Amino acid sequence: MKFARTRAVLHHMLMLPLLLSTLQSAHAQLNNDDDPLPPEEAFRFSAEAIDANTLRATWTIAEGHYIYDSKLRFESATPGVALGTPEIPEGKIKNDEFFGEQEVHRGSIQIEVPVFNRAKLNSLQLIAHSQGCADRGICYPPYRIETSLPLMAAASASSSEKPTAADLLGGIRNGDKGGIKGLVGLDSDEPLPPEEAFRFSAGDLNDGVVTLRWDIADAHYLYRDKFAFTLLESDGLQLGTPAIPAGKKKDDPLFGQIEAHYNAVAFDLPLVGNGSAQIEITWQGCAERGICYPPQKQIVRVAGAGLSADQAAARVPAIAGSNALGASEQDRIADSLANDGMALALLTFFGFGLLLAFTPCVFPMIPILSGIIIGQGEQLTAKRGLYLSAIYVLAMALTYSVAGVLAGLFGQNLQAAFQNPWVLTTFAAVFVALAFSMFGFYELQLPSSLQSKVTMLSNKQKGGTTSGVAIMGLLSAVIVGPCVAPPLAGALIYIGQTGDAILGGLALFAMALGMGAPLLLIGASAGRILPRAGAWMDAVKAVFGVLMLAVAIWLLERVLPATVILLLWSALLIISAIYMGALERIAEGASGWRKLWKGLGILLLGWGLLMLIGASAGKSDPLAPLAGLGMGGGAEETHLEFRTIKGVDGLETALAQAKAAKQTVMLDFYADWCIACKELEKYTFTDKGVQDALAGTLLIQADVTQNDEADQALLKKLGLIGPPAILFYDRTGNEVKNARLVGFVPAEDFIPHVRAALQ
Prior knowledge:
Immunoglobulin-like, five-stranded antiparallel sheet
């Protein structure tokens, strides 16, 4: 019995090493099955120079793994060596669980990259960027590898060593930091790419929240008020309001006093309901060295159980309205300019220009150019008309883009500087002189001492000299259209944040060309449509003379009282009606055109008389001169009551008072010379729904008509170029940055925006 037991013990002792070996082998096999490959093994990288002008980069991709086509890019870290646009083979389309529909590569991929070795160096420090995933559902973070490789010397200097403009632009847009600086041999202490400066991560939906985290590189920071959250798709889940921790107070050169996060920031994004959602997260940051990154975005997909409505309501809101609003329109445009390709960005801005071509700030350019072309008289041809239009539009576009770049880089609005009474009155006088030249009776209006000077100026314009037309285009750009629209604001934000004056200026130039496209059509068609000489030509010139006077009155609206302007409109219509024969008898046998001409004159005479009555009663609206007089003009409009503030101190005082009263605030930037501001006053702020939406909100207005030091300081502090702009503040006195509005907004769009911003 004892022997049997002893034998059993010995048997188990002998089996123990075998059992341990088996367990160890199984454990190793388990680790091999479960542990993901490190990125350097999953995506093996190598590079070599295949000739003097080309290098070949190769990724060998492990089985069950793939690499994103859009994440492949190259940089030269060697001054004097630049890289061109890489030739990336076509991949396969995959519906990726992380980034949606993507082009990916498997197995291996070879990419040839042009090399421009201007300094004729022997080696290149190459930086390659990539990112990939495993089919098992594991996605690797962006991967950066730096390697040194020898370069092959060219047998002789060839033209291929000099990159074309397309190569340079392609290399720069592809992320080649050795591009421009490398070619000129400058030492490039380059900024980190945004994905390295601000490493983003998001957890799963757990206990009703998703934890978001940013690891921030040294000497970099994130803006607290630039976090934004947009629900792209939802099946049962809705966004709550995150409690973003307070940041460190900082006097930022771009945005004034802000809160910034350093090193790292993390907070919970609550979700309400149960199901799945696709959320777009937006953030923005800068480097302390003075480089600001464009807004960055990441899409996060979540699924599971969120909070109840009561639980979500109990959380303290940190960014009012951010969930419903997303990024502001101008920020989205700036983001598009930063992330879209150059060709797409320029085409988009050209389209913006076409949309702006017939707005009140641009429309007066049509009679200005038309008057110049009509002044050609018998010399007018389609070719001549197109030539003059092209000179005018190019001068206007060049001035517009240069003024925009200066505003973006230095925060000074050149157009606003020209909106003073002396400049506007002088420019209006020029149009009056041009109009009288078309009427042909200077001697009846001006003393002889000035007649020759005005005639000389007029004849230059009538002759259509290149310099004269170009000067008119320049003045039109800086004086006629000073209002800020979202595309302009977006381009200026991009220039101010990145310092990229080249792309920003090209975008503004493309937008100005879009604004001028209708003018080119007018110039090209004028020579075919309009008569060459005779009574008809005199009548056409007279019509455009009246339009010139209308432009002069339109300019004077910015400096004269509204009642005086209504009186001027009345005088223009009444006098024009008299010249059209409104008070003359029609001769027997007169043509149908003569009768039509008189009928139009009678209409203008009647309208002018109504304006005259309205002006005598103190009214100001040319379209409703008898409003409120009980004569069919309709009920008197009710306007919003704004409290006027001046400068930074005035704003801070108003915000402090509103915070003490736990009151939301709307700040409106206004100027007498801003046509879109007057549109807002007339069509948006008089709407009953808008007034109801703003009930209980403190309404303050910064009148920057004078554009003095206090006005400029306030605009600079808030990162604005000029009016029209509307800002919103929550009950804690913090601005809802993504609720900013630039340009005219109709009432039907303004109402839901206000409710979302001030919820």
